[in-house]
Amino acid sequence: MLKKATFAILSLMASSLVSAGTMGPTCVPGDVTVPCEVKKWDIGVQALYLEPVYGLHHGYTFHPIGTIRDIENDWDWGYRLEGSYHFNTGNDITITWLHYDNEFDSSGYAGFTPFTGTLLIPFNISHDERFDQVNLVMGQHVDMGLLKNARFYAGLQYARVRIDRDHVFSIPVPFLAPDGFTISRDTDFNGVGPVVGIDYAYDLAHGFSITANTAGSILYGSSRLNNNLIFAPSGLVPINIYASKKSIVPSLEAKLGLNYAHEFAQGVFNIEGGYQVLNYFNVLQVTGFPINTLENVDFGLYGPYLGVKWVGYA
Questions:
Q1: Rounded CA separation 116/113 (Å)
Q2: Which positions make up the signal peptide (predicted)?
């Protein structure tokens, strides 16, 4: 009897030692894990409906009655293209291109001219606003429990902002400009630098998820200003003001949206819509308002977006 009891105790101890030497569960709800190794690719496109916004010195002017009014900015369409290659355990290489181009005319403004002293003269504005942003980044996908996941990424960003404004005065200047004159105010920035960001998703049900993104960059590049007084109809330019400098420009952007994903045998089809904002700080050199000093102003875009993306298995 004693031998049987001793054998049972030794067997239990051996079993405990064997269990202690094995690994515990590797997938526990609430843990932060990376996906299994897989190769995928994706391509996506988004339609953007955006309005630009500027700082004080490029966003306001005078009303013909002498009060201060904001310069109207029109909404227009843009697009964002995206392509990625996914490899290893949740890694990816991604390139994106955001393009926005807006041309429109507005009226109901007044300003000072070289010919009228302190008298406010009515004018119209012809706007041409262009923005391009290209990101080349590497990302890492992580799962944070059963419902939450995030993608951390870092890489390089290139951005170009170009704003051309023509203040068109119809008042004639005898002998010099019988058809009036234009004061052009053109400004641009080209820069490149590091960018970091986070894509976040919270799964709901039936393929839906809440998505969010935040990103920031610090760009180094050239900021230029070019102002001209142009006589009509001759095209003569008696006054030109040009300035150029190297600038360090930080930026921030954020998105909040809703995504629907539908799985197929060959991949996953996604539809996403939401709202986005982005801002580049002190990115443009402009002529100050109301005093003609050289100033730096922000440039931003905000508005809704809607897009589709296909994620295929390599």
A1: 6
A2: 1-20
